[in-house]
Amino acid sequence: GTSNHIDVDPKGEYVATCSDDGRVNITGLFSCENNQNLSHGKFIKVVALDPEVKSGVRRFIVGDDKLTLYERNLLKKLKPCELCAVEGSVLAICWQGNLVAWASHLGVRVYDLSEKCSLGLMKWEVPAQARLENFRCHLRWSNTNTLLIGWVDTIRICVIRKRNTIEASSSNLPGFVVDPVSTFQTTFYVCGLAPLAASQLVVLGYRKDRSPNYKALRPVLCVIEYKMNTCEEVCTDSLTLRGFEEYTVNDYSLGCIMEENRYYIVAPKDIVVASLIETDDRVEWLIKHNKFEEALEICTHGCSLPMLSVARLYINHLLTLKQYEEAAKLCLRVPGNNKALWEEEVFKFVKCQQLRCVSAYLPTSDDCKLDPHVYEMVLYEFLKFDVHGFLNLIKEWPPKLYDGLAVINAIHDHFRKQNANELLEALALLYSYQSDYESALRMYLKLQNKDVFLLIRRFELYDVISKLIIPLIQLDRERAFKILLDKDKIKPEVVVHQLEQNQEYLYWFLDELDKIDSQGTFHPKLVALYAKYDRPKLLPFLRRSNDYGIQNALAICKREEFYPEMVYLLARMGSIVEALNIIMHKIKDIEMAIEFCKEHNDDDLWNILIDESIKQPEIVTKVLDGIVDYVNPVLVVSKIKLGQTIPNLHQSVVKMLWHYNIEEEVNTIAHQIQLTDYFDTQAEVVAMQRRGRHVSYDKVCPKCSRSVIIKDTVPPNGLTIFNCGHIYHNNCVIDNHCDVCLDWDSILDEDD
Q1: DSSP H or E segment with residue 146
Q2: Tell me: the pLDDT tens digits for 298-314?
Q3: What is the rounded CA–CA span in Å between residue 600 and residue 140?
Q4: Domain 3-238, CATH
């Protein structure tokens, strides 16, 4: 009868066939020793040889209404072993090691020969308006534990794994479990499938659609990349086979030799061999289909086509799609350090005004520095379309890459007020790169950017700032003065000269300068500046300084009517009467007048003060209170006219008398204390002089050079002892003084 299934062992030495008449034949191609002929008397749809056979066929499996394993024993007799019953009949078998996958009318099972148990049933969805057994089930092991299933229009990838400890806790479950890792539908009926690469399959398909005359369409060979329950057709080829219009889905099958990546499309009249195309052909195909990333990936692993050529085509393609950023990134993979290639690729971006995209990838090192014109073009485009990006490039790029003066001119030609800050900062940086620090400082000052102070210190631009002193102070007075007050960096005369046009700034500067340098060079200016801007500091300054013109200072104070300052200056000039008149008539401060008179203690001043006070009765008592100890109060009282009303005169007179009374008592007590102290001191001196003095035998009279006393004898005329300690015989003393130290005072005069 007609063979339903053919299986060949891995070595290609034996062929197994089965047919509807129930016969199973195993035929050796090179030997008849292990040939087998079995008759079951029922339909046999599938047979499978042991895939691990070493010599001869020892085991094979037959599927009918049950799954039966036939194994040759030591006597070379076949022993059947029923593995398990089947729902309906066995439709397909695929054997790998100890695992046997087989399909029935309900679905697919995997049987574990080592544990002699089924690992479970994967039910298959019955197609609409058809029966499941009308479609051939395609099973294939891609490796020892991965099963590929293609049936009707569904593909399932399953992994057989060992159960974990939690799953294996139940002793009733097999040690392995079948995990479907991906299940997806195809647009065609599956006629066969085989593995290609990781996550990729080769699938032979039968189109579901029909031609206009209801004939079958050409079968397709697809490469499918699968993921979790989804798939993507990588490529699809239609096959032209003889008689394809008359064939059904079960007329096709797909075989493969996985080790060689060779695939066989089997049809009733043709066998087509399919293999992976050559690398160059594949790259060309990928380029033709705009799959440049894959083409580049292949080129990196070896290809006769230069990767550079592919990458340049890819850049052109991306520019056509207006994917400028991606094209710019790709430039890193193309020219390398080839200056000419870089410039050629960059000019492609010029045409579409997208140099901004490629700017981040341009080489800037000495190893591959492009023509300055290239960098300038990039800067011009940024200047035109993206001023912020332009400023960033000026900061990032080494200034030697481009002509700085040309860029400066371009900024001036395209200066826009709305971008003034960015453009001024860029100009400041460019001028710095050109060592034109004065212009750079002016730009920073226009920007009100305080980095100008860092620039001054970094490049020691102290000579340059002489014309920019006022703008610097306007920007930051504190930081400007830290520089301007350093005499080693810039002379105060230069600063003062520049600040003459701004008197307030001049006052600030000289005031700070006076705190650290009181030499007095600029004190004449400070008089006028304090008078104008900070009067409270004027009088203390006039008191502590001697380096200003008094006449000039007095003129300023007169003009401004600064009377306390005028009083001080007039007093210094000796015009104390005029000063007192100002106190009395301008300041009108009697206490100040009294203190002024006390300070100078001049009789004329006191008379003027008293005469003026008599004219103003309300201040007479204040004068009386103030002149105590300086002027006789009688002078004041005597000038008071009879009948003149003096407020609080009684209290003032009583206070004055009380003061004088206390003063008299104090003086009397002090005199008594002084006398007592005198007499006490006199008594101590007398007592000291009367006390005895020790005279030793070794003392010699300075006059006669003889011992003053002799042992066991008494001096005949007595001794004289002076305060200095020298001792004389009385008859040796002349004029009552010591000849040695000229001491006239003797502290002791002893007679016999």
Answers
A1: strand 146-151
A2: 777 666 566 777 777 87
A3: 127
A4: 2.130.10.10
